[in-house]
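In practice, a research group might receive sequence data for several interacting partners and want a quick structural hypothesis before committing to experiments. The following worked case mirrors that situation: the sequences arrive first, and a predicted assembly follows.
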Amino acid sequence: MTGAGPIAILAGSGQLPIQLVEHLERTGQECRVLAFRGFAAPELRRRADATADLLDLKTIMATLEGWNPRAVALVGAVRRPGFSALLGAYSLLRNRQEVKEVIARGDDQVLRGAVMLLEERGYRVVGAHELAPGLVAPMSLRGKRAPDADDRQAVAFGLELLSSLSAFDIGQAAVVARRHVLAVEGPEGTDRMLRRVAGFRQSWLGLRRRREGGVLIKAAKRGQDLRVDMPAIGPRTVTEAARAGLSGIAVGAGSTLILEQEKTLRLADAHGLFLIAVDLPWMEPPRD
Amino acid sequence: MTGAGPIAILAGSGQLPIQLVEHLERTGQECRVLAFRGFAAPELRRRADATADLLDLKTIMATLEGWNPRAVALVGAVRRPGFSALLGAYSLLRNRQEVKEVIARGDDQVLRGAVMLLEERGYRVVGAHELAPGLVAPMSLRGKRAPDADDRQAVAFGLELLSSLSAFDIGQAAVVARRHVLAVEGPEGTDRMLRRVAGFRQSWLGLRRRREGGVLIKAAKRGQDLRVDMPAIGPRTVTEAARAGLSGIAVGAGSTLILEQEKTLRLADAHGLFLIAVDLPWMEPPRD
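A structural hypothesis for the assembly, expressed as tokens:
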């Protein structure tokens, strides 16, 4: 039942839903926002057309039915809910054992499950990158600083690492200095991973933290459904990377969102960090 | 110049050097201890025959020459020194560029470099596991609790993950719940990784931490030189694993040290955690 109605935005936390809605409004595309209670930012909730609990699938589905949207986008972060809460909600609709098995396969699979649920009901699910390609990191992304030889080695090594890890439903990011892995992102997210690196760098030999180099590499996983879980960086990522003493950031071209792109680049320049986009050997090349 | 003298223990921090010395003394094997200043535990420093800075290779080499040891063991943790400190020290002895390249390849390579240095001078370098096989996790390791089906799945998945990671000079441990990776150990070490898991479990949905299952898997890497960097667990590991809500611990049989083995097992029983040793497909099978 792909409709003729507006684009429906199911909005979690962070800047992305706000920027996406702004983009749609600026370009004259009609949209409706369903804000997830406890996740969506206050300014978005004020603008929202509906509000629902993340796990209240009945309300979510009834709202969508009323809107008859021509496309649905799941946008913004929703922190991984507890197993039992998810179980309870999903089992309103599906076989308990089946749901349990989906959940056991990890985050990716849960999100894919949500997309399946929407698609089964005939909705067309799209990603923020399809609605607003301007938010995606282009191959040409570049600030004032360029990566040096050590940085380029770290980027290449980090990409190998993320490629190996992509079978395991774990983070989309790592910190690498030359060929030494300083951190792999888990469910804690990129910002906390960067704070961890800052923390143990500070404590080595009792020295104060200083610029020690190293690169944040962030990239989509092999086979990742970018419609529901697209890697993103923004100004906060740059600030945390600088605090961790890194020399720069490399993201997957065409498959990473840059929130507030201009501000992000300006901040990277101000901190003396490079910011580049690299081709991911395991992804389709970006179409632009 | 493998000598006829005592066994030389180059001692870093933690319980392992203490337990190794106790074992050697109990079994009538003569040994001499060189304690690293700022690393070795106070009770060991009192018993030590010599003390040196970690990077003071002149004193270390002169001391060993005087002892004429029949074997040298590097035992206990020495936190990763800063690049420049290492560089300075190594370059007393070797070509600066060569050393820089070794260091750039990561922790493993630095330790392998130290072993090479000793071996070039004719010393026989042995591991704690060769001097005291009783400290190593046997295949038969087992507490009161046994892993259930979810736990066994997590252990198998965790071993796959560690096997994939073993090419990358990163941690020897991960936390896995069923097929979901909760953390990969970086330079921060196992205890801090477990505290990280405890931390973000506590914050999901604002619920208090509770027993949520998951397994700590700790194992040597493919090709790891067990003489200088052998994975180890002990009572503190069990306590942190319990705090993180895990259901148990699996270690590589024959290639992991268990500090205070009886106390460690007793604690695991008290916390209701399983503690098992598993075969590592990528290691030589233990000889016992």
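Before designing any experiment, note the following. The longest strand of chain B covers residues 5-11. The radius of gyration of chain B is 20 Å.
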